[in-house]
Amino acid sequence: MITRYTSPKAPEPAPERWSNCIVSDGIAYFSGLTSRNADGVTIDGADEYEQTKIIFEKHKALIEAAGGKMADFTKLTIFVTRIQNNKQVWKARAEFFEGDFPACSLVEVSKLAGPDIYVEIEGIAHIGKGAR
Amino acid sequence: MITRYTSPKAPEPAPERWSNCIVSDGIAYFSGLTSRNADGVTIDGADEYEQTKIIFEKHKALIEAAGGKMADFTKLTIFVTRIQNNKQVWKARAEFFEGDFPACSLVEVSKLAGPDIYVEIEGIAHIGKGAR
Amino acid sequence: MITRYTSPKAPEPAPERWSNCIVSDGIAYFSGLTSRNADGVTIDGADEYEQTKIIFEKHKALIEAAGGKMADFTKLTIFVTRIQNNKQVWKARAEFFEGDFPACSLVEVSKLAGPDIYVEIEGIAHIGKGAR
Asked: Who's near C18: CB < 8 A, 6+ residues apart?
């Protein structure tokens, strides 16, 4: 059955919006997460490197709540608003994965949830299937 | 095997373009659907709330054709052209889901299929796995 | 287990970035691929039709490396920077698929990996499940 997993480290939105992590048939779907905290604000002045680290800490907390690990991620989609800073995103990502990285797309969109949000990352993972 | 599901409520494109709903291994993949009708036009003056309702009516017809229900959706990706109206999208979505909503990303892109199209929504569902 | 598949026809990025094709549970996830060759440049003056053909040749090489075929694709997401040229993308795609095409979204984003890159395509396939 479809199951929602949550973590205190990844604040859920108000009811009737979305779930951060939904699992069915061992496949976990992660919402596009941002660096906003529970108050709806992000760390003042956080750049792409810092925002990406905050986002993957949330993904890590959620996938561990679902019984998985970062190596279980098979796919990421990264939406940014300043693609010229993509190497900052890559640098932060490299702190969370090793070996064969997930498949990934990275594109620049015109706007994300707020002007202080430069990065939004969604993903798919197959729980327990990562080798590492 | 891979199977295409269709509904008279969700017009398919001309041949050799895309399929609205493809199912394999019980997982349904939905194309990015818009509010355009079979004539390729959308309701005159329809805003984000109205367009989103039209889109989810199509998703509902397609997933029911595939033997599923709206609660089977695990993931949505919502592309909009005016993200400042995201609450209108949320309001319409809340009329189609309850309990644990699907995981979701919502980003503003620079253009969709036409200037009258403000919303395009794709999704993934696991047929028969929703609790509701 | 999660397995990475590669092909000499689809250059992989430097380590610690992404994998072009990751398979788990028979589901293949493809990174957003572009028309860039191993030197990081794309064919000079290539338009959407030519870029899309190069991209699907890469997808074809990768899915065949994974033991699959183009008919196994269930979903594509196409990011473009000039949506007014979408028919060129469709024309190239029609050379790689037949019958029931994959589900698909096509949106215009503000920027891709470089100014000469007009198309980026990611996808999901269920290996061996296509009828054709």
From this structure: A76, A101, A102, A103, A104, C31
Give the pLDDT band of residue C110 (cuts 50, 70, 90).
Answer: very high
This prediction's pTM: 0.97
The ipTM assigned to this model is 0.96
pLDDT of residue A42: 75
Q: Which of C3, C6, C19, C112 to mutate to test the interface with A (most CBs of A within 10 A)?
A: C19
Structure tokens at C70: 């183009």
- Answer yes or no: are the C-beta atoms of A60 and A96 closer than 8 Å: yes
Classify domain B3-126 at the CATH topology level.
60s Ribosomal Protein L30; Chain: A; (3.30.1330)
Rounded Cα distance between A69 and B19, Å, is 34
Tokens of C67: 């033991």
**Cβ-based contacts of B98 with chain A (< 8 Å):** 16
Mean pLDDT of chain A: 95
Kindly give the pairing relationship between strand A119-126 and strand A27-33.
antiparallel
* Chain A residue whose CA is closest to B123: A29
Determine the distance in angstroms separating the CA of B3 from the nearest CA of chain A, rounded to an integer.
19
| Neighboring chain A residues of B102 at a CB cutoff of 8 Å | 18-19, 22, 29
